[in-house]
Amino acid sequence: MGIKETIKALEVIGINELYLSRKLKEEKVETKKEKQEDRKELLKKLYEKWKDCTRCDLHKSRTQVVPGDGNPYSPLVFVGEAPGEEEDRQGRPFVGRAGQLLNRLIKEVLGMEREEVYITNVCKCRPPGNRKPTPIEMRACSPYLKEEIKIIQPKVICCLGATAGEGVLGKSLKITKVRGQVFVYPFNPKIKVFLTYHPAYVLRNPKEEETLIKDFMKLKELISQ
Ligand code: SF4
């Protein structure tokens, strides 16, 4: 007998509804807990599959593959370009100066903690000298990002910089023209893609900080819609 039929049958013989509601609630909480473990587990398995990856030349100079980091149930995923020196050393994305600025914006503009969002990169290995990843490297690494997004199913993907936007949308673009705009994720039309500057660019061009803050305010609106 299904849950609906069971509820009806019990109601007929006068079984306490409150007890039933609590029981169902407990089952729901349990299922949610199991689901959360599932997503963490899936991301762990994904990392295990890629941690010794040699699909592109970036494996030759990296210290380690840097996987995404954060809440796998977040409605918001940030995507950057690739790990830098500090990220390559620590094995976590956005932990350098650009990461500090990102953390500040997450807290002060979005009103969230870094742990509440998920942060990753288009390429999971550091390009030598922090150069931009090549299209070949981005293509080689794209299944990893695609799989991460499929597991997390966020409401919004926020691309930080042109390279991130290109990696997510699969087309070349000029960030000065498309920043602040909303696109549709090519592999799932329910997911919105928002583009803004990379925090590292803003650190080099402090006059753009105001634009970045405005974009984050728009991002906040998008998440709450
Ligand atoms: S950047 Fe991606 S594809 Fe290239 S070696 Fe690292 S994990 Fe593999």
Strand and helix map with partners:
Elements lengths: L2 H10 L4 H34 L18 E2 L5 E5 L4 H6 L6 H12 L9 E4 L13 H18 L3 E5 L1 H8 L5 H4 L3 E3 L7 E5 L2 H6 L4 H16 L1
Parallel strand pairs: 2-3, 2-4, 4-6
Antiparallel strand pairs: 1-3, 5-6
Helix pairs in contact: 2-5
Bound molecules: iron/sulfur cluster.
In short:
It is built from 9 helices and 6 strands; from the N terminus they run ααββααβαβααββαα. With 225 residues, it is α/β, with parallel strands linked by helices. The longest helix has 34 residues, at 17-50.
| Spatial extent as radius of gyration | 21 Å
Terminus-to-terminus distance = 39 Å
Strand order in the sheet with the most strands: 1-3-2-4-6-5
Helix percentage range: 40-55%
Label this structure with key terms.
225 residues; alpha/beta; Uracil-DNA Glycosylase, subunit E; 6-stranded mixed sheet; 9 helices; binds iron/sulfur cluster
Structure overview:
The chain has 225 residues and is an alpha/beta fold. It has one domain: 3-Layer(aba) Sandwich (Uracil-DNA Glycosylase, subunit E), CATH 3.40.470. It has helices spanning 3-12, 17-50, 85-90, 97-108, 135-152, 162-169, 175-178, 199-204, 209-224, and strands spanning 69-70, 76-80, 118-121, 156-160, 182-184, 192-196. A hairpin with a 7-residue loop joins strand 5 and strand 6. 34% of the residues are buried. The site of iron/sulfur cluster has 14 residues, from helix 5.
